[in-house]
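Preliminary data (for renewal application), zinc ion complex.
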Amino acid sequence: MYGVSVVLPTPAHSRLPEVLSYRHSASLPLGTLVRVPLGARELLGVVWMPAQGMDEPELATLKPITSVLDVPPLGKAWVDLIRFAAGYYQRFAGELAMAALPPQLRDLDEVQFARLMKKREKMMSFPRRRESTDVAMDSRLRGNDQVTGTDDGVIGGNDAACELSPEQEQVLAQLQSDDPRPKLLFGATGSGKTEVYLRRIEQVLAADEKAQALVMVPEINLTPQMEARFQGRIEARFGAGTVVLMHSGMTPAQRTASWLAAHLGHARLVLGTRLAVLASMPHLRLIVVDEEHDPSYKSQDGSRYSARDLAVYRASSSGSSERIQVILGSATPSIETWHNANGVGRYQRLDMPSRISSAAMPKVRLVDMRLQQKGELMAGGLAPALMAAITERAERGEQTLLFLNRRGYAPVLNCGSCEWKSACPNCSANQVFHKKDRRLRCHHCSLTTSVPRQCPLCGNLDIGMQGRGTEQLEEMLVAQLGTKFRVLRLDADSTSAKGSLEAQMASVHAGEVDVLVGTQMVTKGHDFRRITLVAAVNPDSALFAADFRAPERLFSLLMQAAGRAGRDASMSGQAEVWLQTQHPQHLLYKTLAAHDYPAFAATQLAEREAAAMPPFSYQALVRAEGRTQELAQAFLDSAAAVVATEPEFEPWRDPASKNYVTLYPAVPMPMQRIANVERAQMLVEAPSRMALQRMLASWQPYLRELKTTGVLRWALDVDPLTI
Ligand code: ADP
Ligand code: ZN
Ligand code: ZN
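Predicted structure:
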């Protein structure tokens, strides 16, 4: 008999220990998947430590393992990754391990799992089976391609490799060098970064017949086009079935199949969203994080890890003989990454400043909204000159993309004679007016009510609207252009039905749309060939936001949107980006107009350094949700009291020491109340990452023991993205 240590899906705030002990007739290797009893339940677990020597009486007290799943163990590298992530993000290892495994695995007993493996083996013996669906998809996409008249062969299975640009050649050569540092591929939109990823993947996979690669993209980028591009290229060379997807939109069975393919080494390339960073890939040699600045890489619930940062860790922890290369790609890197690739030199920066086939970057024009006469503005809030530019493009057969980050018709209704506003009764937010179904809808708690006929407070019949959303913009555009041209709105409302986003995208690609209106959903990744005008209707709000990362996000969003314009070199000469603003002299817009990300980043870094903010300090947030704001804050106050009084926290209390950790007072969160739950947060900050890590690790057990009267939930967020 042997003692076996196992981690289970027990979150850190449950009162169970992180690792539980069981006994088994054989010693089990690290990473073995097992099923074990816990109370009345049977749970999936992972063997977490080598077998311990125990004496008989000790072993007799342990419960036996129920069964061992018949699949190779997950291996030391994977266990180390999960262990690191759990330590860094202050989670239990079991919680992260489970986030890394396909959900279906938890529900399969030994017999069901064996059946699944058998079925899989049978399917593997018909390797060409998948092809019928692939061909169907390729021809569908190619069909669209022909309609738009593009024939660069990116989309579809027979993607012919093109000749690399000199910049691409040089970057590829640098990627082949021995420099072990993480790479930042700093490339303009349309500079051909994806082509570089593909070439590098092909090299790495060709050099070692077992090698595997992982490509991560932001949630929103994982389109059928993207998928077809990677699949077409890699499967043509390395065989059908060698590319698998990994994202949360897949069915449980699909996720299990992808996970197994990656774990067993059959998949040579995994293409996925942030959750793919935790995939078991025993022969992983290359990780690409595309659009590395994208906030969707940081999970906002559950284990709150940063997939980008874990990708860098995963590469750095690899041995020198089996080195994993990591490439972070972006036209607007996160300020942290930029800092690492410049000042600090921790990353190697590789530049591709030019667009492919000398397509020019679009010209940026700032529309000074202070000069617009109120009566002259179009109903959707457009300056007349912008409306004229849109019309002109449509008449030339070119497409316009209009971007407004507010869905609905009007963000708030108000009474003309009293204080009444369409405030959501459950949230610290307003209900938004949706004209199409004449409803008021809260975008935070989804509360939907009908529009009052008269003011609920004073009975006044004159209820007005404030602000403008995408629905209003669409209505105005249809009224102006609708008889001759097609206007399409793309936002969470217009795409809520399953498959409708894909259908709408296809119609844009097919050239059926002249003016595309939408929220930030429209700005990312889609390769619309005939777009020569991109306009941001109201981008100013982020300029003065409390969140210090808001300017960074605005810059990248606008740059990304600008990147949609003029991707076709033959039209790039006329490509323009229009920004409607009250602050045309703002440095953010100035640097954007010059397409000068380095200048923008320099201003951000200077501000952050002066204010000792990340990347010049390290942060964590404790968040608490309670029935009242007082109770939520009381929880945070007692958490702070622990640090102030317990002797154990002495090392972090001395303001003169470099290990000093600052605890800021508990405050309401920016969105203070959602669905009648009050939210509070406390910021923890330190100049040293190590000091912060150690302090949090010591704090965690105290937090778990704190009284939680009236507190529904609390969570620790390390390296939070929004404060
Ligand atoms: P990015 O990812 O940097 O925005 P892409 O890799 O999507 O850019 O490339 C933009 C377009 O240029 C794509 O249509 C791609 O097929 C094309 N392209 C990339 N590299 C080359 C090349 N060397 N020659 C011709 N076309 C290229
Ligand atoms: Zn009123
Ligand atoms: Zn609400």
